[in-house]
Amino acid sequence: MHSTDLVALLLLHAAGTYAQSPVYGQCGGVNWTGPTTCAAGSTCVYSNPYYSQCIPGGSNTSQTTTLVTTTRTSTTSTTTRTTSVTITRTTTTTPGGSGSEPATFTANPSIGPGGSSYRDSAHFRVYGATSTSAADSALNMLEGAYSCFIGTLGWRSPGLSYNDNTDSDGPWTKVNIYSVGTLPGAAGVMHADYATGEPWLEVVHQYLTIPGVTVHEFGHSMHYAQKTWVDQARTGAWWETVANYVADTYKTSPLCANARSKYGQSATATEINLNKVIGDSFQVIVDGTVDTGNYYEAWPFLAYLTYNPDGYSGLGTNALLNLFQQYSKNSNETPLHTLARVSSAGASAIVGKYWARMAYVDIGHPTAGQVFLSQRSQYNYANLDSQGNNVYKPKSARRPQYMGANIVPLKKSGAVTVTVSVSGATLSYTATLSIRNTSSGATRYVALSGGSASASVASNEEVMFVIANTPSSPILYDAFSLSSEVKNGLDYSVTISGATP
Ligand SMILES: *[C@@H]1O[C@H](CO)[C@@H](O)[C@H](O)[C@H]1NC(C)=O
Ligand SMILES: *[C@@H]1O[C@H](CO)[C@@H](O)[C@H](O)[C@H]1NC(C)=O
Ligand SMILES: *[C@@H]1O[C@H](CO)[C@@H](O)[C@H](O)[C@H]1NC(C)=O
């Protein structure tokens, strides 16, 4: 909810304009677009997500600004989740970072408030933890995440400076994490220290060892280190999507299995919130609207790109890295525009197939499909209204918005032939019959062609109709401020025989 300051502050950073706020003036906060540095003799002190103030004292040499404040403290799902992971994928391990990366980085206590109570690991320093054991378990968790994303997946190290293009010479700075008593409205915050170009984190004590918070914030700092999505308003909301993708991948993915075990960490429950992803699948694919948007929950799309069950070119293990690296610098394009270059399949086909697979959450994620099976009775599938004569139309409030979808489970009895026919569509779409064998769990997908499809569905199979709003080329949109173009929902009529919604 606080990402508007990300956009504003990053834009200031990009422009290199450092007009200063007076002593006691505001220097940060949600929607703050004024100066983010303070007059000499004062320091910008984070107060809450809505307000940072220039306080007398300190030094402005390590001027910092709240860059991203994240991780809601409320929990959204109480359902039991599966925590075991069967590792069936092969993990490729590549050496991380540059060849000159030292085994141990250097701490810089002037990044963030510093302090005398801290614990170190090779790449991190934790200040102010309530116990040595809490600090050490956070350090092991963070090293596990570092080893996965920087080591296995080859992301740019946050030990390198944002301000520096010559990576081989370091500076190889540890990431400082401050364990604190409270952060109004947030469990964790990532800050950027503009002088050094290094990130630092604050996490509330009780969340320090919780990967959904601390690895999420570390995800922001790795994303910051990638540089190319920074300073771009249209990538702003995607920061939360990426950070939750990082936390979930760290927790669940076979890609991180070696890294986790190196630091004594186990796979844990997925962060997936299918009540939101499926229940509100009609929303714009990444919607940064405060309170009602999906930008924290939309990360399964990024997991789909990573697991790449459809074998699209350019995607797979390196999908996110490819998206970061091939982002057209300073273009302010959206990540879907980059995706259209990263994979020759094109964003529309990829998004259409993603939603077809989200019918049964068969996206290659190790445990999300099990969460789906245990929770599916709770999801809001009330997408269509009957028009009579087997014709249905989407409810006006649930018409698929830009790159969103309707997922419609169909009821049937025994073995049937299901025929669907779409007409009167107001926008380009991709529609699919998603079919699942209830005995084996295997899925198959029958794409509508020329607006219709017909499929024999056996008695031990189930079927859903999925339709996604997929324009032929990506739309430039800011997820924090949705335009009428992307909010314009796909209207259509669908005639369904052999089964009913
Ligand atoms: C930030 O700006 C948006 C758009 O003007 C507004 O809806 C929102 O309430 C503002 N937030 C705060 C905390 O002022
Ligand atoms: C620190 O203060 C000095 C004196 O006002 C100013 O020249 C300098 O730009 C400030 N540095 C930052 C990073 O704000
Ligand atoms: C579904 O899976 C079961 C168990 O693997 C298999 O025996 C059956 O033939 C499958 N049904 C269809 C329609 O493929």
Automatic annotation (TrEMBL):
InterPro entries tied to this protein: CBD, CBD_sf, DUF6055
Pfam family, one: DUF6055
UniProt keyword Ion transport, yes or no: no
Sorted UniProt keywords: Signal
KW Ribosomal protein (keyword) present: no
CC terms in the record's Gene Ontology section: extracellular region
Signal peptide bounds: 1-19
Gene Ontology MF, one: cellulose binding
Disordered, as annotated region: 89-112
GO BP terms, alphabetized: carbohydrate metabolic process
All copies of domain CBM1, residue ranges: 19-55
Protein name: CBM1 domain-containing protein
Taxon lineage: Eukaryota, Fungi, Dikarya, Ascomycota, Pezizomycotina
